[in-house]
Batch of 2 targets.
Target 1
Amino acid sequence: MSGMLSRVAVVLLMGIVGLAYQATQPPSSKGSASPDDMPTVSSPRIRLSDGRYLAYRERGVAKNESNYKIIIVHGFGSTKEMNFLAPQELIDELGIYFLLFDRAGYGESDSNPKRSVKTEAFDIQELADQLQIGSKFYVIGVSMGSYPTWSCLKYIPHRLAGAALVAPVVNYQWPSLPEYLTRADFRKKPVKWAFWVARYAPGLLYWWLTEIWFPSSVTGSNSKFFCNRDLHVLKTSSGFPMLNQNKIRHRGLFESLRGDFLVGFGNWEFDPMNLSNPFPLNESSVHIWQGYEDKVVPFQLQRYVSGKLPWIRYHEVPDGGHLIAHDSVLCEAILRALLLGEEQLTYRPSSAMLVL
């Protein structure tokens, strides 16, 4: 009897070890949708110096007739087709040219196995150069698209005419973030857990995303991470084409999302709160836009970051969530502040509110 139990225990142990090993392996291509289901390349693309292709989309007035040239950087699970709902009347009035692109591994752009915070900035610079939009341009980074924007502020500040970070993700591994601010933040542990799993057990992460998380929680009723305005956007917007169960099953897309997450929440080569003002003569400006009701990134962290970088103009939307870029009124306010220096008191917290 004892011998049989020992053999059963050995078999169970071998099974557990096998499952653990499988969890550490990247997902295989078996079970993925067929190549015919993958989107065909229909957008214009440039070829980068390392051989990768980057897809892009142009909006607004004609490039050669524009007064302002803006590169918009999409967030996690989005693409160049993202919604930045700037009113057409404002676009025509100010003469704005928008350049949107699929970041590495998204949409119709090739993945970058060497992706880093730094490579994101140089992808943007090379895109601007090949499309000849000028020596200086504006950058607007949305959500996870904020880390490429921080990268631009670090590595190519001389190319920037101005920058805005809209609902920017905060990396809990930034050295300057005080522990007292993040100690009670319920988001910190899930991010750390997801980062560890993404790095060391990608097979487990793939299973969890494809079998447990998508599609119901992201677009459904997960009020823990999304306020009511965000949930409405998720249900009605087409700006998140990557975040559904059928798409995430593709190994290439999964690896791109995983890589983006690991870089965005990994150890950066610099601390954003040590950056210098790229516009010391006030020739332009940098802005952070944050929703007070944002359940993805707490406003307390954004207030701290902007407090450490007083040259950043901080705006807070009283009833806004994480998806504030999907509001046309707010998009107009973002553009008027960035391009014209116009301020709205509605979005300006008092100095007393900023004291933590």
Target 2
Amino acid sequence: MTDQTTVAQSPSGAAEPAPPPAEEAKDARVDPRPKNNRAWWLVLPVVVSVAFTAVIPLMTVVNYSVQDVFSPSERIFVGLEWFREIARDPEVRGAFVRTLLFSAQVLLIEIPLGVAVAVAMPRRGVSVSVALVLVALPLLIPWNVVGTIWQIFARGDIGLGGWAINNVLGVNFNYTLDSTDAWLTVLVMDVWHWTPLVALLAYAGLRSIPQPYFQAAQIDGASAWATFRHIQLPRLRGVLTIAILLRFMDSFMIYTEPFVVTGGGPGNATSFLSILLSKIAVGQFDLGPAGAFSLLYFLFVQILCYVFFTVLTRSGR
């Protein structure tokens, strides 16, 4: 019996099997298994949660930002008037400069200090667990408790820290009256509270470096500084990018700690953007300017984070 399969001739004369018909190829690509779309119901709780906690409040703020609200039933559409007023407000500009300066100081202190703490932490033995617990302790304290601790600790009359500065160092320290003392108190408090986060991130990055790198450096006779500069620091680039972004966002939106310690004073010395926004929204109950303020605040944080991320990732290539 002869084979009826059609054979195609190649240019060299060799016989090649003909391709299958189009109908057979199409049927071969069809998955005969029934599709089950019930898995989308597992995502529904997340969608509903995000809608009620993020999307709907954001749309409410947008609605307030373009209206002048007199009462629940009386409001006037004003367009972008509140945005122009907030952008021209000298008090807002001053708070913006203070917040930006505070975030820059926080990054310049906490990032190098956190890396130094991570490098000094032990790598093996029981001391590793002890060091991790001690370093992580400030992160476990709530923000309002941290503010209360430092409010008492820095007092010159009843606080141990303030008393030591005034009586041991002979400095007239009073954060309730002096703007410089208040600024330093808030800055030191933030460094004490959040440097452990940078240290833990950097420590995790250091532990992920393969041991042969250090063995090769030891064979080559590299010093501790050379090992850190050429092996440890380049491997920490990704971790430090995350640490910088986290600390910038947290420091730029800081509210609870300085509000508990100084209340934004003395004067406006520690009145950051978040404290001023709370004053407008809650204290004065100006919903229109507060809505415009919060949207500009949110937009600026997003832009700065994008700039930080772009610069840090491109510099690592």
